[in-house]
# Entry
Amino acid sequence: MPVLTISSLPVEADIPGILAELNQELAAVFQCEPQHVWSAWHVLQPGHYAVGGQVAQAQPVDSHSPLVRLLAFEGRPAETREAAMRLTAACLERALSLAPGNVFVEYVEGRAGYILGGGNIVERR
# Structure
């Protein structure tokens, strides 16, 4: 049940293709079927993202990192969490021609009893 949310300034890229690729690759990392990996990309309006006093209109190569939130069910080993974050960053750096390290990824663990999906509260198996 990994859920990936990406926010960035406007980009010239195949967003649907990038999302599909990320879902496939993350499914392998999390050892689940690709249909269990969801992703969404939110494009920020030009000028609505500041780093310090610098506001950008479109996605720069070396600043204003895309902001990524990766939500997955609790209890994954550190190796899985790290692999998922590194894979996500590498894919976005490649697809958007970003400078190395210019993607911010936050990994969030969803806790049993705190997630509703498919009409049910998700519990530990």
